[in-house]
Structures are given as structure tokens and as C-alpha cells.
Amino acid sequence: MKTYKAVPRKTLLTSALLAALAAPAWAQDAPAAGSDPVDPATLDTVQVTGIRGSLQSSMNLKRDSQGVVDGIVAEDIGKFPDTNLAESLQRISGVSIDRTSSGEGSKVTVRGIGPDYNLVLLNGRQMPASNLGNGGGGLNGSRSFDFANLASESISAVEIYKTSRADNPAGGIGATINIKTLRPLESAPVISLGLKAVNDSSNDNLPRTLQGSNITGELSGIFSQRYADDRFGVALSASHQERDSGFNQATVAEGWATFYGNNTTDWRALPQPGQGYSDRISNRPGPNDVYARPQNTAYNVNGVQRQRTNAQATFQWKPADNVTTTLDYTYVENKVQQQRSELSVWFNYGPGDSIWTNGPVSAPIIYSEDMTNSDVSMGGARLATKTDMQSLGFNVDWEVNNALDLSFDAHNSTAESQPDSPYGSAGVLGVAAFVRGKTTVDYSGDLPIINIALPPGGVQASDALVTGSVFQNSYNKSKVQQYQGRGTFRFADYSALDFGIGHTQVENRSASAIMQRNSWGGLGSPSDYADDIWYSDNMARYFKSFSGHSDPRLTGQFLVFDFDRLIDRAAQVGTASDPACPSCYYAPSEYSEDIRTTEKTRSAYLQYRTTFDWSMPLHIGAGVRYEQTEVESNAMVRVPTGISWGSANELNIVYAADSSFVGGRGKYDYVLPNVDLKLDLSDSLALRGSYSRTLGRPSWTQIQSGQSLADIVRTQGGSGSRGNPGLEPLISDNFDMSLEWYYGEASYASVGFFRKNIKNFISDTVVRENSGNLHTPVGGAYWNEALASCGGTDMPCIRDYIFTNHAGDPGVNFTGVNSAGQLTGTIEGLPTDPIAGFDVTVPANQHSDHLDGWEVAVQHLFGQSGFGVAANYTKVKSGLTFNNLSLGDQYPMIGLSDSANLVAFYDKNAWQIRAAYNWRDKFLNGIGGQGPNPNYTAAYGQLDLNISYAVSEQLTLSLEAINLTDETMRTYSRHTNMLRYATQTGPRYMFGVRYKF
């Protein structure tokens, strides 16, 4: 094992000389695209590996950088602290992460600023970002980079620039994150091979037909060598990972209809005292309270399989001592498949018993509705997506003379996400048994307890049949072409002037199509389906991490089915009014929505750096960056023509056969200044102050042209969205001050304050509009007549009444009777019926506010004992919060939360042991679910453990445990009882072997 050699403190003259002789500032602190010149702060260090070496290198980066910079350095070539980059980044103060449903780190939030406003670079180059969003369907507008696509084996370091500088590319308000990969002429030669066996315990907690393999593998290798007297270098790295996992959720996926207690105009609201079934309501919300009723509640189980392949080739050549050229290629492929089975119940806002919490936000404790032969929904889904990223870049660094350095970089990078199955990116098949009676849910615990009145024997295979189906084909492609020229001119007084120009063109395309069969009342009859297609299971088995899973009230019986076989059978079932439709069960090949946006940005910057040789040396960096961006967006939109009511809970928009493209343009330009000051109070104590102006660009859907409406309309109306290509970016004036004390070997303590004054804040305002003047049967003459007969909003009763009394009348198409005795067919909106309202989400620059916070960090080694600890805490505060008592439009900041980390480790001789606990406080993760309702993610903490043993200098064994204490995640609306998602995953274990040749 190599021992640590302390870095001697430089004299002021040496510091100034090294700063003056350094390459351009971006190359020093966030290396110029494609190049990684040696940082002067590391010139007199010895290569150190292991946890201590990684922490020492990260501390040096923080100490010697211009502005506030944090980072993580690989513990050894091919060995990053965590197998997932996002999970490594969350160890840094001020950084928190978003996780996928299966518990893996995916996207990062920095200092309360969400993933869309953090810019990710690969070796100084802007990277494209593509994904298909939640559930694999719809249009994706996110700019956020998904770190789950990148393996960590080829990563040498990740740097997080929390303060901006003129030589930083623009686009990150929270931070600019630079991912650095191996460069053969700048690292020691190595040949290594790694193997891992992965066991994800969540895979065992699934129905047998959803399970993957209990043990999956990872393979990685690195080859890096120098030739021709170190003038030519080759680095090759590759990895392939397979992971089979699962997650189980209790959900209120359709959200909560929210009211004030005195609401008397919305038919979905609770009856007022003395009216209707008000006598069955206990502790009714007060007139000024806010309360909400659920649209549905469900349990689902999900099997997930992922195959991730990464490869990188880098070639470096020095034709002369003062010229270095670099050619590199990066390839990423990430395939994900998911299978889901569910048990769900839908509510109609009808009569029932309920008990409510006290206000001012009142939520149901117990909620029930009366049902007769309603549906026990047991749908299934198949999701399959593939994301590819390819990046080809070329770089030349030229040291013209002792005073001038120049560099040029060009790269062409593409990311593409698309379906990976004939069922499309997401295929959903509805299944139901129409045997449901009174339905009750207890929302008071971590797990909602669903209780269903069922006939003797419960749900039987002989009762089940296919209902409606939805198959989606979504697509997202992002392409970045970037050219950068940079230089540094050094003056005789050891000062330096950095300069550069750049051109970046980003093309983003997001498209979708949907094939929907609206046979939600039942396709055929149960006798059309063989009983052995289904088998019975119980949901209670799969939620053991939640208290309440063994509650005797829980109705968990559901039917799991063979998705492929049931699809084949459903394609053959039809009636005279609804003929068999084999093509209905595959995703359409032609897109019905298609957004194509091009962003062209030209930039130029100047930055001056110098040091004043005072008794307390003062280092100054001051610069200015100019950015001009042109936006052009073209969107294909569908033309809605009407509304058709096809089942009790769902109405569907009818569209014209042809779509049309709508275009729009926008343009903006900004001057972005920055000043960074560092005062060396002593050899070990530094005071920093920084100011910078940064911008954050709108999402792709926010700047789209045209408007899109959701296909499904509820009785209260529908939803939709439209964009504005003329939106301005967010502009943030950032102020930072920190005090840093470097008191020992790899040991330091720091405290920092930051403030961001943000204007042009883009808020999604929900506007109630009569989009397209579409008429809905809800509230029409037929509806009102049936309402009087049914005595309330009993949806099946209303439909049956209309079919019984108006079959054949205008707009009423009666087709028959389903297995539950309910009449089937469609009821069309007539010109005399009311015009449907739509909650249309519209982005606008309409708010300004501030965000401020504190970061405290400490890192300490306990002498030569091998033990050490690192801890940090970030406190964030802003006026950009959500008011739960308001039902109007609001402009909160997504992702704002406090966070903390505690890492304890041992690194001595052959052993390395690290236990890391990460905690993130409650935060707002989005708005939605029947109007402008908040979605909060509850506070979450996770413990991970990593143990490695060096058998020899060549052979290392490792054991890792992720989510060791089996934590669960929970998302809710205005009250903790208003559940949105409660998610259970499970611990993940990895055993690895790494051999260096």
C-alpha cells in the first residue's frame, strides 16, 4: 500500500507562479472540453488510492479551486465510491437525489435547485439528455440528465461547481457538474477486470410470473497504456450490468379532488349538513377547511429488468511537446423492462360513510362509497424502453509559447430513448371482475387498507374479463453539436486573461402516439376467457415493510395473468358493435404528437485572474460571459372534435383523422458577470466570497408550440398543456460566502452561506378553459334526467338510465349488456350539452423570489488509526413554497429540501470499510393529480455499506449493501393521509472481484 505524503503549503510566489503557468481556468478547475491538464495543486503530491486518497484529492480540489467547488475522486482507477454516480454525488453537501421507483439514484438537486436547472458536462462538454418520463408514455420535456445511464467504472472524478465563472458553460443555476473520464497520457497505465454478482432482495418479493433472476452479474474492464515514449496513449473501458429488481406500491394515482368545506356548486363535493348522506359523515370538514376526496386507490407489484452497457475509447497523441490531441468516443445503452399487476378500486364521489381529520386541511381517515356489481380492477402493464447515447469528440491543446495557450474542441453527441417492445414504450391491459360491493379505505396508516365487500369466495377467474387497453409509443431524441475555442494569456506580473468563444446547437424531439380501446365496461363476457389464463394471489404478501400489511380488513385477493396470452385472446373477442381488433393491442407506428425544437446559442467570455501579495494573500477572478440563444419550435397537434362517454368513470376525446404542425420562435441574450475572491487568512484558513449571474433554460415542453389534451376526460372535465417558445430563461443572481479551515491530513471544516435571487421564474399556471368547445354529456339533458331518477351521482345508474330510456336517440349508441348486468355503449356530447372545461397547464415567466441556505461540512481522519468520518448538513429556505390552504395557482420551487450525510470509514492495510447514511427532508416533487395539488415526498434516509479486502496488490474482494435497513418511500398531497404513492423496494447486495494485471 502506498502511504500518504502531505502536500506542503506553497509560498505566495510559488502559488502565483503555478496559477500563472496553469492552463485555462476551465481546464484547471473544470477542464477544457476533451483535455485534463495537471492541476498545479497536485504537482507535488504522490498518487494515493483508497478512501483516504479519494477524500484527500477531493479536499485539494475544494481548497485550490476558484469559487466554491466540491467533488469526488475515484478511490483507484476503475473504483468509484459508489456503483451509481448519483448515489456518490449525494454524499456532497447541498446535493440530494431523486430515485427511480426501484430505488436507484437517478437525478440530482443542488442547493434546492431541481435537476432541470443543473448543467451536466462530460469532460467539459454539454451532454444531451433523453428519457421517456414516468411510465414510459406521453411527451418528455425534461432537460435533466439521468445518471443511472452511466456506469461508474470509467469515471475518474466528478466536479460540482456551485458558483459560476465566465468560462463555465451557461445553463446551471444550481450547479455545473463535470464528469471526468480516464485520459491515457494523464494517468498511470493499467489493465484491470471486475466482476460482480448482484442480489436485489426486491426481486423475491413479487408474484412468480414477475420475478427475474435472483443473481445477476456485472462485468467491467479497463485498458490504458502509453506508447512511443509517452507520446501516444490508448484507453479503452467497457462495462455491462444486468439487474433484476422490483418495487411494490400503494397508490392514489389519479389524485384527490380538492374543495373548501363550504363548496355547494361542485357535484363531487360532500353534501352540506342536513343534505343527502351528510348523516353518514363523521367530523365533517368545516366551511373554511380544505379537504379532498380520492378518485381511486390501488396496490400494484412491479418486476423490473435492466441491462446497461457502457463503452469508451480515448486516443491521445502528442505530435510535439507543446501540442496534445485527443479523440474520444463514448457509448451508452440502457434497456429497461417492467411488468406490473395491480388491484385497484375506483370511486364515483357518491354516497358512503366517512371519518375526517381536523382542519384546516382535513383528510379522510376512513372513506367508503356504496357500490353494486362495480368493477374490481386488476389490470396489468408491460413497459420496455431503450436509451442510447453516443458522443464523438476531438480536442487540440496547443501551448503556443510561455505566455499563450490555445485549445479547440468539437463534439457531436446524441441521446435517444424509444420503445423496445411491439407493445410500445408502455402497454396497459385492463382486467376486471364486476363483483364489487361497498368499498372502504382506511388512509390513517403508512399503508392504505382497502376493504371490498365481495361475494362468497371472493374474486374468481370465472368472473374476470378484459376491459379497456392503452398502448403508447413514445420517443425522445436530443442532439448536441458544440464547438469551443479557448485560450489563456499570461502577463509578466503572474496574472492571466482567459478568453473563449463557443457555438452550441441543441435539437430536441419528443413524440408520442397512443392506441386505446375504450371497452372499459367489459370486452365480451367472462366465458370468452379460459380460466387458466389467471391465477389467484394476495397483495398482502408483498407489502411486509409497511405496518398494516397483515390487517385482517385488507382485501388483497387479485388475479395475475399471462399478459401475452391474454393479449392474443382479447384480440379475437368482439361483438357486432365492437368488432375484434387485433391491431388495438400494439403500439401505433405513426406519431399523433410531435415536438421538434432547435436551440442555437453563441457565447463569448473574458476572465481575468490575479493574486495580490499582501500579508494575507488575496486571489481574484473576475469575468463576464455573453450568451445569445435563438429558439425555434414546431409541434404537431391533434384536432379534438368531440367527447364520448364509454364507461362509468371515463370519457374520451374524439380526434380528427389528420393532425397539423404549429410553429413558433423565441430569442434572448444575457450578459453574465462573475467575481470570485479568496483571502488566505493563514496557511490553513481561507475566506471566500463570490458573486455570479446564471441562467436556467425552460423545459422543452414549456417552449413547445401548440396545445395537447389528455385523452381521458373525467366527469369534472379534462386536462391539457401548451407551451410558449418566447419564454425567457430563469435568471439568478448568486451570492456565496464561506470559511474553510484545513487543519490536518485530509481533514477540514467549512461553513458557507449562499443566496440566490431568482427572477423570470417559470410557473405552470393551471387555467380553466373551454378548449375546442367540446360538448360533454355530463350536465346535459340526458344526464340531468337520469340524475333525478338515480337520486345522486351514481355513474353506472346514470348510464343505465340513459341507455334504457334514450337508446337510439341522438348521441346514444347502445351496444348490449356486460357480465355485471350493466348496459354498454357510448354517449356522445351533443351541441345542446355543456361545454367541457379543461385544466390547461400554461407556463409563464411570472414570479421572482429568493432562496438562501447554509452548508456545514467536516471531514476528519483520526491520525494513523485508519478511522475517519465525514459529515455535512445543508439548510435551505425560500419563499418559493406551496400553501396547502390555497386552491389557486401557486409558484413553488420543486425539490427544495434540507439534507444531511454521515460517512464513517476505516482504511488501513488491506481493509476498506465505509458506512454512509444519507438523509433528505420532505420536499415538493411536483404539482398534479386533479388540479393544482402538491405532491410531497416524505423525509427519507438510507444506510449503505461497502467493505473491500485487498488479497494482494492485484486482487481485491468487495461486498456492498444498498438500503441496508429496507427503507420505504412515501409521497402524499396536502395531508399525510392524502397518499399518492407508498413504495417498497428492498436491500440490494453485491459481491465483487477486481483484478489488476
Description:
The chain is mostly beta strands. The protein has 7 helices and 50 strands. The strands form 6 sheets. The protein has a 33-stranded mixed beta sheet that branches. Strands 1-6-7-4-5 form a 5-stranded mixed beta sheet. A 5-stranded mixed beta sheet has the order 12-16-18-23-24, with no helix packed on it. The relative contact order is 0.13.
In terms of DSSP E residues, the strand content is over 45%
Intertermini distance: 16 Å
The number of distinct β-strands equals: 50
**Overall spatial form:** globular
Helix content: under 10%
Number of helices: 7
Q: Which residue ranges are poorly predicted, with pLDDT under 50 across at least 5 consecutive positions?
A: 1-48
Quick one: biggest sheet?
A: 33 strands, mixed
The averaged pLDDT comes out at 88
**What is the structural class?**
mainly beta
Radius of gyration: 30 Å
Which characteristics define this entry?
mainly beta, disordered N terminus
